[in-house]
Amino acid sequence: MAHKKGVGSSRNGRDSNPKYLGVKKFDGEYVKPGMIIVRQRGTKIRPGDNVGLGKDYTIFSLVEGTVKFTPYSKTQKKVSVVPLAQ
């Protein structure tokens, strides 16, 4: 009688937790300072005006305003926050 399970079933069973990456606030949406706009791995989307870049490449708002996406290159976009008129 075998003392080990079949190779397939004993080597399965590992899976990582989801990382919830992606755009959190889209073009034209209202943001407050500190709100996360994009969660990403690397700078797929580049930071523009009035946004900060975290050490894990998270882009967040520095001012109150609306989100604006613009082309950066053929493959990349740039995100900025347009401040509210005072």
UniProtKB/TrEMBL annotation:
UniProt xrefs under InterPro entries: Ribosomal_bL27, Ribosomal_bL27_CS
Statement: the UniProt record of this protein carries the keyword Ribosomal protein: yes
Gene Ontology cellular-component terms listed: cytosolic large ribosomal subunit
Residue stretches in coiled coil: none
UniProt keyword terms in alphabetical order: Ribonucleoprotein, Ribosomal protein
Pfam families tied to this protein: Ribosomal_L27
Region ranges (Disordered): 1-20
An annotated Gene Ontology molecular function: structural constituent of ribosome
Domain of life according to the entry: Bacteria
GO biological process: translation
Family classification: Belongs to the bacterial ribosomal protein bL27 family.
Name of this chain's protein: Large ribosomal subunit protein bL27
Organism: Thermobaculum terrenum (strain ATCC BAA-798 / CCMEE 7001 / YNP1)
